[in-house]
Amino acid sequence: MDLRSLTPASPEAGHILWLWNAAMWVCGGIMAVVTAALIYNVIRFRSRGGADPPQNTGNKTLEIAWTVVPLLLVGFLFGVSVSTTAAIYNRPQTTPDVIVTGHQWWWEIHYPGVNAYAANELHIPARRDILVDVESADVIHDFWAPRLGPKMDAIPGRRNLTWIRADSPGDYQGFCAEFCGAEHAWMLFHVIAQTKSDYDAWLAQQAQPAFQPATGDAARGAIRFRQLTCANCHNIKGTNPQNQFAPDLTHVASRKMLAGGRVENTPDKLRDWLREPNIVKPGCEMPNLHLSDQDLTTLTAYLESLK
Ligand code: CUA
Questions:
Q1: Residue nearest to atom 1 of ligand 1 (CA)
Q2: What digits encode the pLDDT tens for the residues 266-277?
Q3: How is domain 98-206 classified at the architecture level of CATH?
Q4: What pLDDT, in 10s, does the model give residues 115-171?
Q5: Measured in angstroms, how far is the CA atom of residue 180 from the centroid of ligand 1?
Q6: Under CATH, which architecture does the 3-46+57-89 domain have?
Q7: N or C terminus of the chain with fewer C-beta within 10 Å?
Q8: Domain residues of the chain, as ranges?
Q9: Which ligand 1 atom sits closest to the C-alpha of 184?
């Protein structure tokens, strides 16, 4: 699937594209008319050292025309904006299916129904309208999955509700669409639309407490995770208290990407990320803990066991 595509994959995104095209053609038409008139007048009335051209004041027809025509155009844009907003937002449901919180620079995904937390990967059932509560933990971000629905700002202290939908299962790219600091460009997310049964299975699995390895590097990594400062910021359900300052790692190994979409989630990349977070993603909030090779090995083994 082409993640750069902007082709609408839902009626909501279709409405937005239609509105964008309507505004584009109206504004493009205005620009063409104004530019043509400007060029004509610059050439036709350029100074040849003579007197000014005749001045036309108080022309009733002109006055009416340049009042009525812009009024109609603005009225049209107002009308299509209102009807698009109504088509997307006029629905009875007010309880969100999922709460998405923007952080510098990653997305927290919370499913309140089962109290499961994910990061940078929003799973939804296909062919169903999903009500998303968009919030922010720090500065203004903007939640945008172009193929699935409208943009929605994530404002500190506010709950903004928006709708998304995917008409067929697939992987859809999402972005932060509001400049929010150094790593704004690496604040990506994936919307994974699944069949109802796949989605239910994924959600049930995400709601489970974390796997607790009993032997080997993974078990040693679990101990080191609690001894080092990792647990001060990251939650792993079943092992330490709720803490959503940094991404919940309960099922980190089930995710496709790390660091807000900066790198793929492979053991090698994870190890690089743990070793020097600021090389992988300059400016990120994850500190360099100067981990020993042994810590890197055991922590990577532990985190990759958290399916
Ligand atoms: Cu968050 Cu830009």
A1: 141
A2: 888 888 888 888
A3: Sandwich (2.60)
A4: 888 889 999 999 999 999 999 999 999 999 999 999 999 999 999 999 999 999 999
A5: 4
A6: Orthogonal Bundle (1.10)
A7: N
A8: 3-46+57-89, 98-206, 216-304
A9: 2
pLDDT value at 19 more than 70:
yes
Q: From CA 84, how far away is CA 16, in angstroms rounded?
A: 7
- What CATH superfamily classification does 216-304 receive? Cupredoxins -  blue copper proteins (2.60.40.420)
Centre of ligand 1 to C-alpha 179, Å, is 5
- CA–CA separation, 23 vs 102, rounded Å? 29
- pLDDT band for position 5 (cuts 50, 70, 90): confident
The pair of three-digit structure tokens given for residue 99, joined into one six-digit string: 């709460």
Report yes or no: 244 and 151 within 8 Å, Cβ to Cβ. Answer: no
Chain center to CA of 60: 51
Residues enclosing ligand 1, CB less than 6 A? 102, 105, 141, 176, 178-180, 184, 187
Write the Ramachandran bin of 129: left for phi over 0, alpha for psi from -120 to 50, otherwise beta: beta
CA of 5 to the centre of ligand 1 (A): 20
Equal CATH topology for 98-206 and 216-304: yes
- Give pLDDT, residue 1: 47
How far does residue 186's CA lie from ligand 1's centre (Å)? 8
Q: Which atom of ligand 1 is nearest to the CA of 177?
A: 2
